[in-house]
Amino acid sequence: MTFDYQPAFTSASRKPRTSKRAHREAFVGWLYVLPALLMYAVFVLVPFLLTIIYSFHRWNGVGPMTWVGLKNYITVFQVPDLMGTIFHAFWLVVWFSFIPVGLGLVVASVINHVATGRFGEIARTVLFLPYVIALVAAGIIWGWLFSLSGLVNQFLSIIGLGSITRAWLGDFNWALSAVGIIGIWVLLGFCTVLLSTAISKVDPSLYEAARIDGSNWIREFFEITIPLLKQEIGVCLTVTVIFALATFDIVYVATAGGPGNATSVPGLQIYILAFAQRNIGLASALAVMLMILVVVIIIPIQRLNKETY
Amino acid sequence: MKQNFLRFLAVIVVFGLLLTACKPAATEVPVVPPTEVAPIVPTEPAPVAPTEVAPVPPTEVAVATTPNCGTDPVVLKATFETGFDIPFKLAEEFTKQFPNVTWDISQDQFANLITSTPLVLASDNAPDLLRLPTMVSFAKDGLLMNLDNYAKVFGWDQWPVPQLNQNRIDADGVRGSGTLYAMGLNYSLTGVFYNKKLAAQIGMTDAPKTIAEFESLLAAAKTAGLQPIMMWGSAKSGMGLAFPLQQLMAAYGPVGPINEWIFGKAGATIDTPTNLIAAQHLEQWIKAGYFPTDINAIEYTDAAARFGKGEGVFTFNGDWQNAGYDKDLPGNVGFFLMPPAEAGGGYAAMSAPLTFGIAAKAKHADCAAFFLNWVASNDTARGIDVAIGGSNPGGPAGATMPAVTAGSVTNETLAAGPVMGADGGAMDFIANATSSIFAQGWTPELQKMVGGQQDAAGLLKSVQAEYERELAQ
How many C-beta neighbours within 10 Å does residue B253 have? Predict the structure, then answer.
């Protein structure tokens, strides 16, 4: 029955004009997809196209809109603070992406090895919680923790490092890294849960075979876990790199870009340009450039990911 | 399939372009030219805070001819600022006195009002009355109602001049004169608050008469191991050092050019020789350790709380914080205006109105204007203004000044108002010069000064460059 049906279906899809049924099916298919497509169009595609259109105009969001060509894009390169924010975003990639993914791999592997069962579930839940906590609340909590009299400095004083205590989020040299630590706290859970789910799908016989051959946990980690988890690692990297480059909320609630412009990132500048300065054109130009930057960085990660399979 | 996808994409693009064409009043908003520019008649140099009893409330003058709320049911649509109780309490009292008026109030944080107000004003459902976070661009876009006629009818243009000036905008978009676009619910005053016990500890018996005297008190506080000044400086609140900086500017130079810079007058600059002296003093204060070492991470609320717990002999702030100080340190907080550079010099302070406007599309503009007039002239309303907000209610010269609890710091700020007013030292805030000069100019540059990455001359140059860049946009 299936054998008979399959060629008929294939031939229908190859010659759509010959089959009204195929047409009807395609139409019904589109109807099913339509609600989602409409939402996607209204909330993603339209704003995306409008952003591109705005980036070629001078507009305050309310008054008349004037065509200025590439002027906004040139301004982005001319204002040093705007370009500086992109370097900050790259530094955050280390904290928001590389460290959570690396640490997530280790934690997931450890949980899988030593903390299976209920304890493992609890550990995963605890690590994942920061990801679901409202970032505004997290920003306030971390503001207290990193303050001069906060828990971080109290701990440093106890272990004899009182001389390095400071208001971490107000220090020019450390504020961006302090924001990065908040990023690790938020993203570690996401990476751990994703990677530990992937590890649990790895055939246990591979680990058993390796153990019979005498390999230890570190060797298993590098020889089995990492190679077999490349796809999930790729997903983690993609999500967290985008998060780092396009970040706004963590920085906004932690430092609002200060001190000076030490923690200012493109997302924050876009917000200030669009909503405080009401310079929608320049904000849109920076947003388009940020998007191009994200795509340029993400494509190699995706390609690398595909090449392994 | 590929063709189908291309067709689909084409539909989306057309859809997007259609939406672009439909966006809210992007290209067709008529710019309403300021029509009648009311002449500013500086009648008498009356202080902003007169204390004598007014014989007749202005609302009783020709009630029949002045705009009012009528007798039919009216729902006033309003947008207020979250965290400030004054307009809510005033609205409540207004309904008590005029039961036909009820309210449809929405509220939001100040930072959100900056972003949402233009859209709210441009919508067909614009509020009658709204808290204005900024003014110039809204007025330029024709989104705010010209209040000149109301000013004539209600006699606002006869009030002491400084009250209305900050809400006037001329044809070039320069504030300070021209068409009236907003009114103040009250008029805040800034200066130096001090912890009376700690001040006595360092030998302060009277308010300092000169900057030199003030600086010697700061040095004494430092020597005594006290925190001389408590201030905030996190970018999340905006850099509080703009307060002492502007006070120093007004002590070493005239107030006029500072206001001209804030109001956006052509050719105005903040980079002047006297402002440089002011910035150098601030830099010395920073280097001398008069401010908390973690100032760049302190938020406004933290600074107020720490001062309330006795950390800091002095703090620069405004009278909106009076209620908080009286609650935290009852009877123990004093206030003085920043002294002049030389003994006998004039006193100056930032004194800004709590600005409320009427939308150009307001459905009950007359009633909203009547409310604004009522706030300044009704004794109960003025009482609410002072009791809740701690600021001067303004209004006509000779209006009744409500009684204040004895020993409250509000007594001292209200008494200081006329002193500053008599010297003509009222200034708007340098952070209000453009919509993001605080976030993009003062805050980062002053934070750099705290971090030793910026000096006095560089501070003024950088802020001036940012100011010119923003005005050129």
Answer: 19
Beta-ladder partners of B81: B108
pLDDT tens across A268-292, in order? 999 989 988 889 999 999 999 999 9
Q: Are B359 and B127 in contact (CB under 8 A)?
A: yes
CATH class of domain segment(s) B190-350+426-472: alpha beta
pTM of this structure: 0.82
Q: How many Å apart are CA B361 and CA A58, to the nearest integer?
A: 25
- pLDDT for res B18: 37
pLDDT in tens, B304-346: 999 999 999 999 999 989 988 999 999 999 999 999 999 989 9
Residue B20 has pLDDT above 60, yes or no: no
Report whether B431 contacts B242 (CB < 8 A): yes
Q: Mutate which of B296, B301, B361, B443 to disrupt the A interface (most A C-beta within 10 Å)?
A: B296
Residue B142 structure tokens: 């024709």
Q: Minimal Cα distance from B110: which residue of A?
A: A276
Report how far Cα A235 is from the mean position of its chain's Cα atoms. 10
| Helix-helix angle A230-245:A175-200, to 10 degrees | 150
Residue span(s) of chain B under CATH 3.40.190.10 come to 58-187+354-402, 190-350+426-472
Q: How far apart, in whole angstroms, are the C-alpha atoms of residue B48 and residue A272?
A: 35
> Could you tell me the CA-to-CA distances from A122 to A100, A176, A183, A199, B317 in Å, in that order?
19, 31, 21, 17, 48
Tell me if residue A188 falls in helix, strand or coil.
helix
Q: What is the CATH number of domain B58-187+354-402?
A: 3.40.190.10
3-class DSSP state of B335: strand
> Is there a contact between A63 and B24 if contact means CB atoms under 8 Å apart?
no
Tell me if residue A70 falls in helix, strand or coil: coil
Residue B356: its H or E element: strand B353-357
Over residues B272-291, mean pLDDT = 97
**Distances in Å between the alpha carbon of B426 and those of B134, B191, B254, B416?**
19, 12, 11, 12
**How distant is the Cα of B356 from the closest Cα of chain A, in angstroms?**
19
What are the domain boundaries of chain A? 15-71, 80-307
Are B16 and A170 inside 8 Å of each other by CB?
no
Q: Which residues from A are below 8 Å from B16, CB to CB?
A: 45-46, 49-50
Question: pLDDT tens-digit profile of B176-213?
Answer: 889 999 999 998 999 999 999 999 999 999 999 999 99
CA-CA distance, B427 to B409, in Å (whole number)? 22
8 Å CB contact of B16 and A46: yes
Q: A69-75 long-range CB contacts below 8 Å, 24 or more apart?
A: A72/A281, A72/A282, A72/A284, A72/A285, A73/A285, A73/A288, A73/A289, A75/A282, A75/A285
Q: Does B227 touch chain A (CB under 8 A)?
A: no
Whether B168 contacts B179, CB under 8 Å: yes
Q: What is the DSSP string of B357-373?
A: E-BTT-S-HHHHHHHHH
CATH 3.40.50.700 fits A80-307, yes or no: no
A272 contacts B31? CB cut-off 8 A: no
Mapping DSSP to helix (H, G, I), strand (E, B) and coil, where does residue A277 land? coil
Test A167 with B293 for CB contact under 8 angstroms.
yes
